[in-house]
Design goal:
Layout: H1 2-41, E1 46-49, E2 55-62, E3 76-80, H2 88-100, E4 104-107, H3 118-130, E5 134-139, H4 146-152, H5 156-161, E6 165-167, H6 172-180, E7 185-187, H7 200-210, E8 213-220, E9 228-238, H8 239-245, E10 259-266, H9 270-282, H10 285-288, E11 291-301, H11 319-327, E12 335-337, E13 350-352, E14 355-361, E15 364-369
Parallel strand pairs: 3-4, 3-5, 5-6, 6-7, 9-10, 10-11, 11-12
Antiparallel strand pairs: 1-11, 2-8, 7-13, 8-15, 9-14, 14-15
Helix pairs in contact: 9-11
Length: 372
């Protein structure tokens, strides 16, 4: 009798487990769908502003006839990386890309190595500046530590060389040094020009700018724009990098001429962007600016627990909203948001160190460089 009861109990347990498995298999699709819906409703971990601004290149102005500063077909171009080390693939793409544009790229001795010293990095840049056969410097990538190089470089070499440098991000420190030296430079994508990831008109604009054909940009407006018109030397670049040049001999914000400031940033949250802009504000740079152009904000973290706007009258809707509320109150200068230059796949080139006319209206804004 006991054996019968035990066998019946075992059968009962098997039946119970079978029912549980059956219920789980029937519910699994619904649970998966629910989980997918919940995941889809989660706020993205990061966002980007400015990369989707509509840009029309209305025309090109020919600056190339004013002298020999800009390039011509067949010129030798130094391919170096005076910031962080690039990959060999990035160097190869840059070399092949410049060849396809009709130039003769010459690699720096220390551009494609696995490691190098600061002195070796400086040697590559010094060679590129001193060699009379080299007509321009094309940087492969940005990264970090350009200020370390410039702190030890004889800045007179830049002024004496009279040749453009092309790059952005950490290369912004070099763009600043070129501006202080009274020379134009090009804020542009680097090896990214040759990956096929950028729109064709971005690449074409960089190619044209290198020979002195400067685009006139018409851009769709932003609700936070401030209408007005201003003229000034275009300065700036990456926001974090710009703060590292302040007070140095290569500080572009210290030039005596009126200037228009451009800044962009990548992977910094509201708090850090606010902190960098506060430094510029405390230095009086925002007050000195004749106009402001804000570029792309790429990969910005959505959450910032210590500074998200809740303590400033409501949560920030965007980086543009934060800047408008925190830094632009009562400013009577033209301000343009969302010019698509920076760390996004859309990266239109900018001619730095040259006088720019910025016109901002309710319908959009225009960037037009001016011949002296």
């Amino acid at each position: 009798m006991k054996m019968f009861k035990k066998g019946a109990a075992m059968k009962g347990m098997k039946c119970f487990f079978f029912i549980l498995v059956l219920i789980a298999s029937l519910c699994a699709p619904a649970l998966a769908a629910y989980a997918g819906t919940e995941a889809a409703q989660e706020e993205p971990k990061s966002f980007t502003e400015g990369a989707d601004t509509t840009v029309t290149i209305a025309s090109y102005m020919d600056f190339g006839k004013e002298g020999t500063y800009f390039l011509k077909e067949g010129d030798q171009i130094a391919v170096i990386s005076p910031s962080a080390l690039p990959s060999k693939r990035q160097v190869e793409m840059t070399v092949e890309g410049l060849k396809s544009w009709g130039y003769v790229p010459v690699e720096g001795k220390y551009v494609a190595v696995e490691e190098r010293t600061l002195e070796e990095c400086i040697k590559d840049l010094t060679w590129a500046l001193n060699d009379p056969e080299i007509k321009a410097i094309f940087c492969v990538r940005g990264g970090h530590a350009s200020s370390e190089v410039l702190d030890q470089l004889q800045l007179s070499l830049i002024k004496d060389a009279k040749k453009p440098i092309i790059g952005f991000s950490d290369i912004s420190a070099y763009l600043s040094a070129w501006t202080v030296s009274g020379l134009p430079s090009i804020h542009s994508a680097m090896s990214g020009c040759f990956t096929g990831s950028m729109p064709a008109d971005c690449t074409e604009a960089t190619k044209s700018m290198m020979i002195g054909k400067i685009p006139v940009y018409h851009c769709k407006g932003n609700e936070y724009d401030i209408p007005g018109s201003a003229e000034g030397i275009l300065i700036g670049g990456n926001l974090a990098t710009l703060t590292t040049v302040l007070g140095t001999d290569y500080d572009c914000t210290a030039i005596e001429e009126p200037f228009i400031l451009f800044v962009e940033e990548v992977e910094e949250d509201y708090e850090h962007i606010h902190r960098f802009l506060t430094i510029l504000d405390h230095k009086g740079i925002l007050d000195k600016a004749a106009g402001l152009i804000f570029g792309e904000w790429v990969g910005i973290p959505s959450e910032c627990g210590t500074y998200n706007g809740n303590a400033r009258g409501g949560r920030f809707k965007s980086v543009a909203d934060m800047i408008s509320r925190e830094f632009l109150q009562d400013r009577q200068i033209p301000v343009a948001f969302g010019f698509p230059a920076g760390h996004g796949n859309v990266n239109y080139p900018l001619l730095m160190g040259v006088k720019l006319k910025l016109d901002v209206s309710k319908d959009g804004y225009t960037l037009e460089w001016m011949k002296e």
